[in-house]
Amino acid sequence: MKYKTLLAAASIFAISAASVYARPSISVVGNGKVDAEYIVSVFPDKKSYAEADTDKAVKDLFKTGAFTNVKVDNRGTKVVVTVVETPIVVNIAFNGNKRLKDEQLDAAAGLNSGTPFDPDRLPEVCDRIVKAYAATGRRNARATPMIVDRTDGFYDVSFDIDEGERSTSEIWFGGNDSFSAAKLQSVMVTKPTGLLSKLFSRDVVDAGNMELDRQRIADFYRSKGFADVVVSEAEIDFDPEGKKAMAGFRIKEGPRYAIGSVSIDNSTGLPLMKVAPLKGLEGKVYDPAKVANGADHIRRSLLGMVDVTTRTDRLPNGVMDVVFAMDEAKKIYVERINIVGNNFTKDYVVRREFDLSEGDMFDPGLVREAERRLNRLGFFDSVRITTAKGSAEDRVIVKVEVVERKTGEFSVGGAYSTADGPMAIVSLSQSNFMGTGRAFSASVGQGTETGNYDLSFTEPYLFGNRLSATAQVFRRDYDNRKGGFRPYDETVDGAKFTLKGPISTNTDLGVYYSFTSSSKSDIDADVAGSLVSNHNHVVSSLGYDWSFSDLDNDKDPSNGLKVSFGQQIAGLGGDAQLVKSEASARVYRELSERHEIVGSIAVRGGQVAGIGQDLDFSDHFRTTGELVRGFENGGIGPRDATTGYLLGGQYYAGASAEAIYPIPVLSDGLGIKGSIFADLGTVWGADGDTVSSSGAKALYDSASIRSSVGTGIAWDSPLGLFKANFALPLSKEDGDRAQVFSISGGTRF
Questions:
Q1: Is 732 helix (H, G, I), strand (E, B) or coil?
Q2: Which residues make Cβ contacts (< 8 Å) with residue 686, sequence separation at least 6?
Q3: Beta-strand (E) ranges in 187-329?
């Protein structure tokens, strides 16, 4: 036992009874587990003991934790030491616990086998166990202790656990005239009890999280122009039985400000020619973050030689003038970067998102950029960076507070789409493996018409830079699809290796090598031979993808622009020699803050051309039903006149306009949204030489526009993105294949 080992080691230091002094005779009474020799050893080797000597010895004995009482009777030449030993706990057991494991309750209880045990502390231990359950939403849990005396001061302790029922929660707001309760709940960590919030324990009312939610609500209001908003501390109430929590905030919104004039107060004498115009801020809703970005831009433009502070002047008509005041930069250095809340994520994963470290000159712009990067990692529910004065006037302490989210998932589930039918899915993923920021995923999906097998690994910080490397291997199995889209069974095996990194704040560039090998079997007789070959089709290619995004929220945007462009060049061996180019752009704008309606307009297009040889039909564009909703996968585009086989085209183009809005009855933390949309697009231009050499005759090979209007519903669930669309085609060609209703969903590959 740990305790006996400790005492045995301590006894080595016992002082021998044989001494040059005639030490008083010391007798020990009441000891059972602790050797008398050890107790004697704490007394000094002297002829007689003063009161100070015995007092020190008593304190030293108490410090060991082995005794609950020590009494010394000093009779000159004889000393009697009477002790009462602390009981030792041997075994600790928990009975009746299902929601929390023994290891979790052990940590909460704070008892360790082989250590001193004080029965008077049991109420405190039970209280800690109950609090552990309260943190999971079970506020009426109970812990009842039982002690078994094993004699000689050794005990077994067990706890009978009544886990109780899980409590529900309600979130309310007062004074929120400009935004709905659903909108404010969407920015909070804590959610009201609902189907998913309960499943993932997001509805647990905790004082610490509610304070974080208060800050997030205030930040949200300020980003919408309410610079003077006041959000009260959370008001939290529980019913007497602990079955229901009610929490809320009282809000004083204050006036909403738009930016009036924007000016620069330059007291440095430095030229401002390199400073980009800031007039783009004028007339916009006052957002402290965007104003701070303007100050950062001035600072960067002048190479950090100036400090830029922001002054605001509130006018009575809801206008706020902004002045950027420039002064010569004061040299302030980072004394420490303290990270709090990363119980799982390694410190270096957080630190490497900073472009400054201890000892560097402090730059507020770099701190804000680090906060943005940390939020984009997806490891944290929230990130908050604050500063405090350091040990000197020119020192500052940077504090990073994070709230971690679960980043690992094992799921057994399913997916369904009208295009591919039902599919059973088993997947394992971790986006923050062992807290290192590395990601891996493995998934297997098998359905009636398709099969998917994927394995990938990502190293996010290669060679000490923000350069990520991803390796992926996969297999796709497709069954014969009648109707000309895929009239054969097909297996595609492949691998892809990607390097990706930022080239500016909002711009990323990725380069990759891809290898795929496609084999076909059970080919329909009418297309076998010249139209579809049973030989393997190998594509070995290099490519790149460039993207720009200034979206306000990557997952649920309401404002901003996202643009991408990529090219794939095949011909490094293999059967295909081609250049494929694709581009897309989508802009988001908030149409109604009160009703959370977001509008978006998107355009996209692509072109593929052979290099020194004809294109295989499988290398043509064969778009999915997402190009123009209301049509099947491959429902539009050139077809063979005789067989109806979908030839595909060298070109495609499309555009859509959409309004997205929350569905009120389903806004209970589920994130289900509805939409109305209008789509148009086309696929055209089958390779003429390929058509001629194959003996095909292309029909519907024109850039004739297809269009549709419709409504849909989308749910970005933990198991993947579920979509259902009802679309009515407005214009089409005779050979097109409509699909008014479509549904898809499940884990994404």
A1: coil
A2: 617, 620, 638, 647, 648, 649, 650, 698, 701
A3: 230-231, 235-238, 244-252, 258-266, 306-314, 319-328
Sign of the torsion formed by the C-alpha atoms of 622, 624, 628 and 631: positive
Report d(CA 711, CA 652) in Å as an integer.
Answer: 24
Secondary structure of 587-619 in HEC code, one letter for each residue? EEEEEECCCCEEEEEEEEEEEEEECCCCCCHHH
Instruction: Report residue 568 as tokens.
Output: 């794939």
| Whole-number Å distance between alpha carbons of 693 and 521 | 22
Mind listing the pLDDT tens digit for each residue in 321-338? Answer: 999 888 877 888 999 999
Half-sphere exposure of 49 (CA within 13 A, CB side): 27
Cα–Cα distances (Å) from 111 to 62, 83, 90, 130, 146, in that order, read 19, 23, 10, 15, 14
Q: How confident is the model at residue 20 (pLDDT cuts 50, 70, 90)?
A: very low
**Angle formed at CA 425 by CA 419 and CA 427, multiple of 5 degrees:** 130
At residue 718, the pLDDT reads 57
Q: Answer positive or negative: Cα dihedral of 456, 457, 461, 462.
A: negative
3-state secondary structure of 405: coil
Is there a contact between 472 and 456 (Cβ–Cβ < 8 Å)?
Answer: yes
Beta bridge partners of 79: 26, 74
CA dist 213 and 202 (Å) reads 12
Name residue 423's amino acid.
M
The tokens describing 51, both together, are 């009161």
Name the DSSP letter for residue 121: G
Q: Are 621 and 672 in contact (CB under 8 A)?
A: no
Residues with Cβ within 8 Å of residue 697, at least 6 apart in sequence:
640, 641, 642, 691
Nearest to 324 by CA among 288, 363, 367, 292: 292
Position 140: which residue type? N
Q: Which residue has the higher pLDDT, 75 or 142?
A: 142
Element (H, E) at 720: strand 720-731
Q: Where are the alpha helices (DSSP H) in 207-249?
A: 207-223
- C-alpha 211/C-alpha 231 separation (Å) is 10
Residue spans of beta strands (DSSP E) within 418-478: 421-433, 438-447, 450-459, 468-478
Sole residue written with tokens 């109780």: 164
Domains of the chain in start order, with CATH, are 2-85 (3.10.20.310), 88-162 (3.10.20.310), 168-252 (3.10.20.310), 258-328 (3.10.20.310), 333-404 (3.10.20.310), 420-745 (2.40.160.50)
Could you give the angle at the alpha carbon of 471 between the alpha carbons of 468 and 476, nearest 5°?
A: 135
Are the C-beta atoms of residues 269 and 235 closer than 8 Å to each other? Answer: no
Residue-wise pLDDT tens digits, 373-428: 898 888 888 888 888 889 998 899 999 998 888 766 655 555 555 556 666 677 78
Q: What is the DSSP letter of 718?
A: T
Q: What is the DSSP string of 301-322?
A: HTTT-EEEEEEEEE-TTSEEEE
The letter for the amino acid at 260 is G
376 three-state secondary structure: helix
Tell which residue, 641, 566, 552, has the closest CA to residue 600. Answer: 552
CA distance 14 to 269: 78
For CA atoms 97, 99, 102, 106, give the dihedral sign. negative
Name the residue type at position 394: D
Q: What is the token pair recorded at 616? A: 């295989």
- Which of helix, strand or coil describes residue 89? strand
Map residue 98 onto helix, strand or coil.
Answer: coil
Say what the pTM is: 0.69
> How many Å apart are CA 684 and CA 687, to the nearest integer?
10
The residues pairing with 433 across neighbouring beta strands, listed in sequence order, are 438
CA distance 715 to 719: 10
Structure tokens at 101: 């494991």
* Structure token pair of residue 216: 């997030």
| Sole residue written with tokens 């030989």 | 535
